[in-house]
Design brief:
This protein is an alpha+beta fold. It is built from ten helices and ten strands. The protein is globular and about 80 Å long. The relative contact order is 0.11.
């Protein structure tokens, strides 16, 4: 009966390898990366060297062709020590997923090998200041001009902007479209394209090692063949992308929560009060039990979701939203409890749990707020 509802040996071996790398090469820099709000270049170099920067890219584009669960395991294990660093593999998947789903063979060959090798990375540009949850209200425009497209507008909240070479960008190509969503197209922009620039870094609560910036298109000219799919299909591609990438945010949330639980376990075994370890108090034990139980449930939901997206399950959208929502809510709960277990020490930067609590918050917001996820889930249930 081996193999019955369990991860493969390859998945477990991958987890061990990524965990060892994260502990050795990424964890030692995490506090300083957060403190100085700098890009985790040591993490990037270590991930690239080990081939963990974009494991999902198919072999035909010089990638490893790892499945969706493997991609989640990489993100989870990196997030366990540093959420900012886990955005390197996570956003490489987010930025390439529209290309994998809808781009021409030429665009795939042009872009994907450089990301697989780690020579380049990619960001995803959907949101705008006035078009967050309401993505169809975006104002960035792309106009066809002979054998080029000309882009104008501003995108906001772009993860790893300035570090990335490539940007997958959604823009309005048909402002007269009866349904706004059908007037949006997707494009691949290179950082050196004329008219493209990156704004100042946002000052954020958490994930401080991952730059978040606006990006600007001022008569930005790109070759006509850099459109992803047919004109007018961009938002459909963007939404289909999220079915594949919401599980990765769930994985990031599970990793953050796991890191907080492990730190808590070590601390409560050492810390003594009233003549005994605080680990021996039943109130503390019940908190730990709940943390462990919720993380386990979240992890299984994330892997189930990743597998559903991989096989094109009809319920993939519902499960992706469920995994992202549940795991991120649990990450916030678990990290808050972790700070509580550390007491006053948990509120200081001497321990990693306050950083984990700050980092966890964004997982409830990006790639669709948890309120939007609940709308998606309810719609799927009522349709059923």
């Amino acid at each position: 009966m081996s193999g019955l509802y369990q991860l493969s040996d390859e998945h477990e071996a991958l987890r061990e390898a990524v965990r060892a790398l994260a502990d050795k090469e990424i964890a030692p820099h995490a506090a300083e990366v957060d403190e100085r709000e700098r890009y985790p270049s040591e993490a990037r170099d270590a991930l690239v060297k080990a081939g963990f920067n974009a494991v999902h890219i198919p072999e035909e584009y010089d990638g490893q062709g790892a499945d969706a669960i493997a991609a989640c395991i990489v993100i989870e294990e990196v997030a366990r020590v540093d959420a900012s660093a886990s955005l390197i593999p996570a956003v490489n998947k987010l930025g390439t997923q529209p290309i994998l789903l809808s781009a021409s063979a030429e665009v795939k060959k042009f872009v994907l090998p450089s990301i697989a090798s780690g020579e380049a990375s990619v960001s995803y540009a959907l949101s705008e200041r006035e078009a967050g949850s309401d993505t169809a209200s975006m104002r960035t425009r792309a106009v066809r001009d002979g054998d080029t497209w000309v882009l104008n507008g501003t995108k906001a909240w772009i993860t790893n902007a300035g570090e990335s070479t490539w940007y997958t960008v959604m823009a309005v190509t048909d402002p007269e479209a009866e349904k706004k969503a059908n007037g949006i197209s997707a494009f691949v922009v290179h950082k050196d394209d004329p008219g493209f620039s990156v704004g100042a870094k946002e000052r954020k609560l958490g994930i401080k090692g991952s730059p978040t910036c606006e990006i600007y298109f001022e008569n930005c000219v790109i070759p006509a063949d850099r459109i992803i799919g047919e004109p007018g299909t961009g938002l459909k591609t963007a939404l289909k992308t999220l079915d594949h990438t919401r599980p990765t945010i769930g994985a990031q949330a599970v990793g953050i929560a796991q890191g907080a639980l492990e730190a808590s376990l070590a601390y409560v075994k050492e810390r003594k009060q009233f003549g005994q370890r605080i680990a021996d108090f039943q109130g503390v034990q019940f908190m730990l039990a709940d943390m462990g139980m919720k993380i386990e449930a979240a992890r299984h939901l994330v892997y189930t979701s990743a597998a559903a997206s991989e096989r094109g399950d009809s319920r993939a959208g519902f499960i992706a939203s469920a995994a992202k929502t549940y795991a991120s809510d649990i990450a916030m709960e678990v990290t808050t409890d972790a700070v509580q277990l550390f007491g006053g020490a948990g509120y200081t930067k001497d321990f990693p749990v306050e950083r984990m609590m700050r980092d966890a918050k964004i997982t409830q917001i990006y790639e669709g707020t948890n309120q939007i996820q609940r709308m998606v889930m309810a719609r799927a249930l009522l349709k059923g």
